[in-house]
Structure formats: structure tokens, C-alpha cells
Amino acid sequence: MRRTLRGTITGIVAAGAGIAAAELLAAAARPAASPLVAVGGAVIDATPTTIKEFAVRELGTNDKPVLLTVIAVVLAGLAAVTGISATRRRVAIPVGTALLGAVGATAALSRPAATALDVVPSLLGAALAGAILWWPLREPRAAGLTSVRETGVDRRLVLRLSLLAAGAGVAEAAALTVSGRREDAAGRSREAVRLPAAADPATPLPAGVAAGFSTPNTAFYRVDTALTVPRIDPARWRLRIHGMVDRELELSLADLLRRPLIERDITLNCVSNEVGGPYIGTARWLGVPLAALLREAGVRAGADQIVARSVEGMTIGTPVATAVDGRDTMLAVGMNGEPLPLEHGFPVRMLTPGLYGYAGACKWVTELELTTFDQFDAYWVERGWAARGEVKTASRIDTPKPFGRPAAGTVTVAGVAWAQRRGIRAVEVSVDGGPWKAAELLPTASIDTWTQWRFRWPATSGPHSLAVRATDRTGAVQPATRATPFPDGATGHHTISVTVA
Length: 501
Prior knowledge:
Layout: H1 2-29, H2 35-46, H3 49-59, H4 63-86, H5 92-110, H6 120-137, H7 155-192, E1 238-243, E2 249-252, H8 253-257, E3 262-269, E4 280-289, H9 290-297, E5 305-310, E6 315-319, H10 321-324, E7 330-335, E8 338-339, E9 349-351, H11 357-360, E10 365-371, H12 379-382, E11 394-399, E12 409-418, E13 424-431, E14 437-438, E15 440-441, E16 451-459, E17 462-472, E18 494-500
Parallel strand pairs: 1-10
Antiparallel strand pairs: 1-2, 3-4, 4-7, 5-6, 5-10, 7-8, 7-9, 11-12, 12-16, 13-14, 13-17, 15-16, 17-18
């Protein structure tokens, strides 16, 4: 038991020190090469869709910290096993650390935007962990030390482990400091960006729009695969437009800001949104119309897909038609009157009204390639999601809350409905499975935003169920059949239960 405890603690301390050193090197040179981030990204890529859906549904924006925590726990377990094995056979040290280093290096190289040097932090960390593991476990006689009785406490081992743990703590603190400075620098760079006024400003919101029509930046949902938010220097950012075009274009942020900008209120929602889910929001976006850039590049006949690539290698496939059919598809640079927040794609993201985010809203975009759907499958399409990603007609009850206890009398049932590019014609509410009754539609900004609605319900005491459905302006009624988000968006009526006091 004493030997097992010694191996466990030594293995974990050695691994912690090696990882801390690797994280420090990655933070200083290239954050994307972080072993934890690289392994986490590889795990996300390999995770089955059903588990991804579960994580988004149950964990929301906490899915990434939970994933990193699980990776750290697994790593600690492997380090403990290596340490225990090393107390019996020293060959376990090079074998165990080489295996962990290879996993980190392979994960780093698997990232879409990887370079050959991205393996260095993982390999260096593994080598350092091996050396550290050997030092406290070497034979006392070989070190010129006096053997310690098995019943005593090896004070030298305790001292060595304490020094190693302190060193690991210092390295990790240094890595966090470097990362914090990068984040501060990115924040200052963002604050220094001055957005020009829109050449084509948004129409003022109509009178009668209720509070909550627009979603603040701090409350806007975030769903993506980036374990760390990219920190991009706007002065060095470039956008390349290439592929099936007559003329390749390369544009800086300054080039974009000199062009005529449009400002629009647009609702954006995630395909992972369950019926009644929170992954939807409306903001006032400022950007360059993509159609003008494509006309300048000259799209060749046959090109039907725009593959947007982000700085970390994510690919989003968007139909060319949605950029040139008159809708306000844009390269957004502003959100609710300020430069894009870092987590929402600063300095530039793509935005396509009427498509779910996975099919038309690439964050941190650096490249647009004109190609065909037959020639290339974007990231989510490779994983079985539909290629086109058109938003479905849907609605949601926001008040009263599920399992709420409103007082008897007239209760206002209210929420939002959406069918981007089609608009909402009607919203209806059903109480306890009874007949559908028309709700009042509030004024809205355009067919590219959600529509607020409310229904005056003469509530009586007792338990009740409330359901909502919407009809878009084409006459299509929101389907009642429940379907999960995969592969092209959830369907079904949002239904809640309340108890009237």
C-alpha cells in the first residue's frame, strides 16, 4: 500500500508538472497547440452526435469546462497507473510518458489548422514528466542516499514531491498569466476598432415591440466547438476569397470597414435547439453584404457552395444561392452597436438569415472558398447533419415559466415564434389539449427576426398544460410531431405545465 501510494502521488505530480510546462510553452507560442485543448478538440470531433446533443442540451455553455475536467481526471488516472507501475519496473516510465506524449502530439496534428510545430508542447511535456517521475523514484543507493525503512517516512521523497508540485504550480500560474495577457491584449485590440456608420442603417423597431425583443450581447447564446476563444489581432486579420472564382480576393479588416455597410436586425438560432430551447437570439448586426464581394470575385458557373473556414479550422458550408438571392447575408463586424464580442467571432463572422448557425454563421472567419456540395462536405455535414440547414417554423412559450404557479384570473401567456425568410402569419395556443385559439402578434422588425406574441388566458384553479404552434406566411403550420434536432432541426409543439393557484 505504501508503494502504491508513493507511485500514485509521484505519477500525478510528474504529469502535472509536465502538463503545466507544456501549457506554458503553448500559451507563450501558440495557444492552439495546448495538449489539453488539442485532446479536447479531438474528443469533440470523435464524439457521436447523440452524445454531442446531450451535452449541449444538458450542459449548455458549461460543456467545454466539463470536457476539460473529464480529460484532466482521466489523465490523472493514467499518470497514477504509470507511477505505480514505475515503482516496480522502471521501463514503465518511458513507455507511459511516451504514450501520453504521442496522444497529445497526434491530437495536436489532427486539428484542421495544425502546423508541424504543434507537437512540441506535448512531446516536451511528456519528456519532462518522464524525467520528473524518474527523479523521486530512483533507487536511494544509486543516489548515494541511505535506505529508508519501509515503516518510516521518506522525507527526501516528500521534499522532492513538494518541490515538484510547487514548480508545477508556478508553471501553471505563468501559463495562466500569459493567457490572461493575451486575452487582455485581444480585448484592447477589439476596443480600439472603430466601426463606421452604416451606409444602409436598420429600420427603427416599430412601436409596440415588447421588452426583450433584442438580445444583449452578454446574454446571446454561444454554441461552437472552440475550447478556447480565438484571440485574433485585427490588424493582422485577412480574409481570402478563392476557389471557383474569376479573381481571388484578399481583404483586411480596414478594407471591409471602408466598404458600404448594412445594418439589420436578424434572429440567429442553433440547429441543436430543442423544442422551446434557449439557443436563439436577435441582435442588430453590422456588416458587409457578401453578394457584393462575390460579384467582385466573379463566381464561376457550377459553384453552389461557399465553404467558410475559421481561424481554428472549422468549416461551414453555405449554399451560394443564399448569398445572392436578395437576403442580407453578410460578413458581420458589429453586434448591437459594438464590435463583435470575442466569443461571437471577432473580428469578422459570416451571417446568413434563414439558415441555422451550423450552415451559415461561421465565427472567426478567415477564408471563403467557392466550390460545390458534391466536392466537399463541411464539418457538420461529415457528421450526418443536413447540408442546407434551413430554419424551420417554430414557437416558444416564455411566460409563464414551466411549473409556474400563476394566480387565477386573466393570465398573459407570451413568447416568440420564428420562421426566418418567411415570417409569421399566426400563433395559436391550446389549453389542456383543447381547441387552438389565436394569440395576438406584436409588431416585428422583418421576416428575418422572431415575432413576439401574447395570449390572454382566463385561468382557473388547478393543473393545466399550455401548448403553442405557429403558422408561417406561406401557410405552413408548425408540425406537431416531435423530432430531435438531428439531422436538420427539432420539430414539435412547445408544451408546458402550470398550476393555477
